[in-house]
Fold this sequence. Notes:
Elements: E1 7-13, H1 17-21, H2 24-32, E2 39-45, H3 52-61, E3 66-68, H4 76-86, E4 91-94, H5 106-114, E5 119-123, H6 133-149, E6 162-165, H7 166-172, H8 177-180, H9 195-205, E7 210-214, H10 231-254
Amino acid sequence: MQDAPHLSVIIPCYNEQKNLEVGALAEVQAYMVAQSYTWEVIIVDDGSTDDSLALVEDFVRDAPGFVSRPIPHGTKPAAIRKGIEESRSEFVLFTDMDQSTPIGELAKLLPWAEQGFDVIIGSRGMTREGFSILRRAGSVAFRLIRSIFLLRDIGDTQCGFKLFRREVAARLLPKLQFFRRDKAADTSGWKVTAYDVELLHLCRKAGFAIKEVPVEWLNRDLSDTKGQNSEAKRYIRESMDMGRQILRVTYNDLRGYYHDL
């Protein structure tokens, strides 16, 4: 049996055909093969309805260290959990397929892990290139509302670029309400969720050390996962959903839902 790698890169995939076609995985591969530490890349296709899975499996066939682990559609938290379950490393990195935060930004996060931090999260700042005025305003409002209730000292909870000690992620991710909810709940299509907020809140409650690190970000997403609604309509819907989820986490905390961390 091979020794466990130092790092597992977990990439959720849902209808990412266009990002795959422009070489997103080739970017990841080019960076990883240049590293001195051992690694693995786990791509979890979350029941894509386009050609994403076929493209992923074609890529990994000739890419040592890359594996494909498809699952029935369950949304992003389910894909990340599968990746963690399949990983064998000391550290796990969550990163988005579109590489809006380039994989090379990992070099900014790893030194903090070596200094003893358990969770190191990328922070995109408010001057993000390719970030519309509407999205920028929404991000400010989201941070303000979220900080009233949770994680006041963290600026950006929603960046998809996060590094965890594997044991921390494996212990706390299953505690999310997403995995304790009514299994009949709707998981169809693509959804923005505040699972990041809940997971970071659990990390803080469990006493794990969190470090926020500025990273580069440029909107490079070409995927069709978000549907064809206008940005304004999508923004309003997502904002309402996120607000409800933040209130849910706060309520769950007050009623002792997270007592078993």
